[in-house]
Amino acid sequence: MLYCMHTNKEEAKMELRVSAVDVKLFSVSNRSRTFVAEASDLKGYNLQQRIFDDAIDVGFGLWNAATGAVTRWAHYSDTHDNEGDLVVSYYKATPETIRKFPQLEGWMIHILND
Predict the structure, then answer these.
(1) Which of 9, 11, 15, 79 could be bridged to 88 by S-S, CB 3.0 to 4.6 A?
(2) pLDDT score of 3
(3) CA dihedral 28, 102, 60, 20 (to 10 degrees)
(4) What pLDDT tens digit does each residue of the chain (114 aa) get?
(5) Parallel, antiparallel, or unpaired for β 20-22 and 58-63?
(6) Does pTM surpass 0.90?
(7) What is the DSSP letter of 111?
(8) Host H or E run for residue 96
């Protein structure tokens, strides 16, 4: 399902609807500018869904009940241990999210594979 977000009068960006995870499932560190959660706490959420119709970026939405805002976070990279097992997945706010919420510049999400 698609909806249109107009970034300005001349241009419209098509975004795919994404399911959003409640920010309350994350620990927040203002000092390190990270949201951290364990993968087992996020079971049932699709963290690798396409977030734009014109790009291959995957990620998910992060919902803040206090503001009602849903921000979009794109998968950035992974860290694996010496045996090749996934340890951490990293996500960055999309450029569109940073334009709407500039205070999220430099923040990351870390999903720990417990």
Answers:
(1) 79
(2) 32
(3) 70
(4) 223 343 443 334 566 677 899 999 999 999 999 999 999 999 988 898 887 777 778 999 999 999 999 999 999 999 999 999 999 999 999 999 999 999 999 999 999 998
(5) parallel
(6) no
(7) E
(8) helix 95-100
Question: What's the CA gap between 19 and 73, in Å, rounded?
Answer: 11
Q: In the structure, how many helices (H) and strands (E) does the chain have?
A: 1, 10
Q: pLDDT at position 5, please? A: 42
Contacts with 62 (C-beta within 8 Å, 6 or more apart), sequence order: 20, 21, 23, 26, 35, 70, 71, 72, 73, 109
Q: Report the candidate in 28, 26, 5 with the shortest Cα–Cα distance to residue 15.
A: 5
Q: How many Å separate Cα 57 from the centre of its chain?
A: 11
